[in-house]
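Is it possible to get an amino acid sequence alongside its tokenized fold?
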Amino acid sequence: QMQLVESGGGLVQAGGSLRLSCGGSGRTFSSYAMGWFRQAPGKEREFVATISWSGDYTAYADSVKGRFTIARDNAKNTLYLQMNSLKPEDTAVYYCAAKEKPGYGLGYTFSDEYNYWGQGTQVTVSS
């Protein structure tokens, strides 16, 4: 079992920055591939970024590439999402997710590939 808790969301002006954190329970955090997803009102949940268990592989949605950075600290059981140059269209609830038994060096972009989810944290970007 893995429990995930997001934090760091809030209200920010366009062009600003936020850093989201996701804390994982248990001693096996480092064995999970991780991902960030988001869901805006009236829209489906969408992929934002993913990172392999070791942190060596990352991938991003085109809409956030060059602005967002995913990272992890396995010693602290924590996943991060640094969000810069925020836009109003980034407004959403952001979720972290964990995939157990990932392939070596892989990240995952589809929500149904993940086994565990956090409760989400709201990010609101004002224009």
Summary: The mean pLDDT is 95. Residues 30 and 100 are 10 Å apart (CA to CA).
